Amino acid sequence: MSETLPTPASIGAFLTATVPMVRTLRLEYLETTAERAVLALPDDPEYHNHVAGPHAGAMFTLAESASGAVVIGAFAAELGRAVPLPVRAEIGWTKLARGPLTATAVLGRPAAEVVAELDAGTRPEFPVEVSVRREDGAETSHMTIVWTLRPNS
């Protein structure tokens, strides 16, 4: 991680600068706090699939990026002693996605519990729930991604 820790207001700029895939898909950070992150994926024919909607890989990247933004927001103060890493993810596609999409990510456990486990010398794991929606509000996919804070040696 960089020497300057990102603040909630700078998370989008930080991740856009450090994660090439965010720039490739032109993801937009609409909201980034310690509690939730909201990202947008523009509608771009370059990323469409065989049914004229965003490719599943682009939707996965949108959801995973939203989860990473809320993790950075929640644990920015811990980045000097631990590295956030995804452990596993499960995604389900529920409705046809077309047009621009928005992903909303929220922590599945209180951040204080996770930090307490880190303080106790363990490598905590915690889920982040992400809902991806079309402009009409219909959920097109849902991801649960489990993250860890790997202590620096």
Give a verbal description of the structure.
The protein has 153 residues and is of the alpha+beta class. Helix content is 27%, strand content 34%. The protein has four helices and six strands. It has helices spanning 11-18, 20-24, 56-75, 111-119; strands at residues 28-32, 36-41, 82-93, 101-107, 125-133, 139-151. The protein has a six-stranded antiparallel beta sheet. The radius of gyration is 15 Å and the shape is globular. The two termini are 15 Å apart. The model has no long low-confidence stretch (mean pLDDT 94).
Short description, anyone?
The protein is of the alpha+beta class. It contains four helices and six strands; from the N terminus they run H-H-E-E-H-E-E-H-E-E.
Give structural attributes.
alpha+beta; 6 strands; 153 residues; 6-stranded antiparallel β-sheet; 27% helix
Overall 3D geometry?
globular
Tell me the total number of β-strands.
6
Q: What is the terminal-to-terminal distance? A: 15 Å
Rounded mean pLDDT is 94
Parts with pLDDT < 50 across at least 5 consecutive residues: none
